[in-house]
Amino acid sequence: MTKPKVLISDKMDPNAARIFEERGCEVDVKPGMTPDELKAVIGEYDGLAIRSATKVTRDILDAATNLKVIGRAGIGVDNVDIPYASSKGVVVMNTPFGNSITTAEHAIALLMALARQIPAADTQTQRGEWPKSAFMGVEVTGKTLGLIGAGNIGSIVASRALGLKMKVVAFDPFLTPERAIELGVEKVDLETLLARADFITLHTPLTDQTRNILSRENLGKTKPGVRIVNCARGGLVDEAALKELLDSGHVAGAALDVFQTEPAKDSPLFGTPNFICTPHLGASTTEAQVNVALQVAEQMADYLVNGGVTNALNMPSLSAEEAPKLKPYMALAENLGSLVGQLAHGNLDKISIEREGHAAELSGKPITGAVLAGLMREYSDSVNMVNAPFLAKERGIDVREVRHDREGVYHTLVRVTVATEAGDRSVAGTLFGAGAPRLVEIFGVAIEADLKGNMLYIVNEDAPGFIGRIGTLLGQNGINIGTFHLGRRDAGGEAVLLLSVDQPIPDDVVKQACALEGVRMVKPLAF
Ligand SMILES: NC(=O)c1ccc[n+]([C@@H]2O[C@H](COP(=O)([O-])OP(=O)(O)OC[C@H]3O[C@@H](n4cnc5c(N)ncnc54)[C@H](O)[C@@H]3O)[C@@H](O)[C@H]2O)c1
Ligand SMILES: O=C(O)CC[C@@H](O)C(=O)O
Q1: Which residue has its alpha carbon closest to ligand 1 atom 10?
Q2: Which end of the chain, N or C, is less packed with Cβ atoms under 10 Å?
Q3: Domain identity same for 344 and 409
């Protein structure tokens, strides 16, 4: 088996490359490529490990013809076009906790540096000026810290601030009152936070809701003398308005680790008294970089080698223990989806995926993804289990998952039912022996078959002589039959024949088969 190939395209702790190799991947480390250089090579890779410098745009994704997973060694994924990656079937993962403590500590460091103007005092002292009377600081004890965003990092900042004897008020629409109590913070609305905070620190992602959350208008509502820290994302604070308010003295100090445009090589804020900045260093500690590098490599290798999914932003998680158990189900589910896709005519607007027995004990989402991938492969070549649910949603297909506790005839069963213009059509399959997928029912007829390679599906009247006729026809056309499966509803009623053949069946042979006595339908299939 060829090893999956991974490209590390940003500066990353060497532990990442080591882990990839130990876990069975080939790895190339090429930080600092231009977008054109990346575009030229990305087609070779199954995985792309990045930090924030690599921009994974549509253009790059279009060239990434083998790419299966993008791993962000860090939290923010605003440098990845996730919707487009999803539509291309590429899993996007991040490492949501590896650098949280480090970033929270950076926010606190900046807060303290602002309170005591440490950078300017340091510069002037080292110039030999001994500016003792130029720097009058403020205590943080007893002051109110306004936290915008109380997720992983915000919560850690809150605990550190409480340790510094600050009062913490938090604005976060997703913060429950119970969690606020647990964190020891007061949940408030944004207006209240702006009016009450002596220090404000931001810890939200950059979204349509948070963009410019500290706008000119909102900055105007802050308490005179407020000090502001942004260690989250550029674009949360209106930088031009901040400059004016720093100049007017309304804002007593501001510290930015992140900028609207990065790298920020030029900014009107540079040189403003009481303005401090760092070049997006929030996550830059040895500990955090080792954490995120190890974690991203473990997650990506696990996905590429075993199919395990952890911390994916566009796919449900799947543990390394569950992945091998699900593997045979993926093949079964994809085949069942493909079978209904090939047999059901007309618009598919509803699909239900039922699991019973052992299948009901496993996670349903991957099985659903595989059924949808099989089904939609009839309509699109680039579909896989990652993008299939998105494509189904886009097409307005109503997808239902049903889990039965009941014991059925089979120890495990997956049934796929589609609602078509001609009524509901359902196929079902099980796993035999060591996990061999097997079809056990097709549109209400019990039949046992391996769905593999080229096949021919025939519905005919159950009457003597038919098997001989079809065998003769295929033989006369030089088509060898591999396996032969029969099923019927009632004796003398409708019968179903599923043949595996050694080559695709030409159209004229299909026509001849349709013309045989007693034939109701003939459909060549491919798996
Ligand atoms: N400077 C750095 O180097 C650095 C390092 C790590 C993380 N970050 C950034 O820090 C930010 C926070 O990271 P995290 O791990 O705490 O994320 P998180 O997802 O754990 O927390 C984000 C919080 O923001 C809240 N939120 C979302 N929309 C909001 C809104 N409109 N108003 C108020 N709150 C809102 C969410 O409810 C959530 O609690 C991210 O943008 C991340 O990219 C920066
Ligand atoms: O990789 C970095 O240095 C920055 C990471 C940070 O912005 C993040 O969102 O995790």
Answers
A1: 232
A2: N
A3: yes
Q: Are residues 356 and 292 in the same domain?
A: no
- pTM for this predicted structure: 0.78
The reply to whether 295 falls in a domain is yes
Same domain? For 16 and 55 the reply is yes
Q: Which ligand is nearest to the CA of 210?
A: 1
- Report which ligand 2 atom has the smallest distance to the Cα of 99: 10
- Asked if residue 446 belongs to a domain, the reply is yes
In this structure, is residue 132 part of a structural domain? no
Q: Looking at the structure, do residues 484 and 428 belong to the same domain, yes or no?
A: no
Q: Please, which residues have CB within 8 angstroms of residue 478's CB and are 6 or more apart in sequence?
A: none
Cβ contact 256:233 at 8 Å: no
Q: 197 CA to middle of ligand 1, Å?
A: 19
CATH number, domain containing residue 398: 3.30.1330.90
Residue with the smallest CA separation from ligand 1 atom 39 is 151
Same domain, 53 and 80: yes
Residues in contact with ligand 2 (CB, 6 Å cut-off)? 51-52, 74-76, 99, 280, 282-284
Q: From the alpha carbon of 51, which atom of ligand 2 is closest?
A: 1
Q: Active-site residue numbers? A: 233, 262, 280
- pLDDT digit of tens for each residue in the chain (527 aa)? 799 999 999 999 999 999 999 999 999 999 999 999 999 999 999 999 999 999 999 999 999 999 999 999 999 999 999 989 988 889 999 999 999 999 999 999 999 999 999 999 999 999 999 999 999 999 999 999 999 999 999 999 999 999 999 999 999 988 888 999 999 999 999 999 999 999 999 999 998 889 999 999 999 999 999 999 999 999 999 999 999 999 999 999 999 999 999 999 999 999 999 999 999 999 999 999 999 999 999 999 999 998 888 889 888 777 777 888 898 999 999 999 999 989 886 667 799 999 999 999 999 999 999 999 999 887 666 688 888 888 888 778 899 999 998 878 999 999 999 987 778 889 999 999 878 999 999 998 999 999 999 999 999 998 888 899 999 999 999 999 999 999 988 777 889 999 999 999 999 999 999 999 999 999 999 99
- Cα separation, 10 vs 278, in Å, equals 19
Closest CA to 7 of 40, 29, 39: 29
| Any atom of ligand 1 within 6 Å of the Cβ of 105 | no
Answer yes or no: do 419 and 470 share one domain.
no
CA distance linking residue 233 with residue 344, whole number of Å: 49
Cβ contact 363:318 at 8 Å: yes
69: closest CA among 338, 296, 323? 296
* Exposure class string for 322-339: b at 16+ Cβ within 10 A, else e: bbeebebbbbbbbbbbbb
Q: At 242, which CATH number? A: 3.40.50.720
Residue 265's domain comprises 138-277
Task: Indicate the helix (H) or strand (E) that contains 93.
Answer: strand 91-93
Same domain, 178 and 191: yes
Look at residue 119 and tell me if it is in a domain: no
Total domains present in the chain: 4
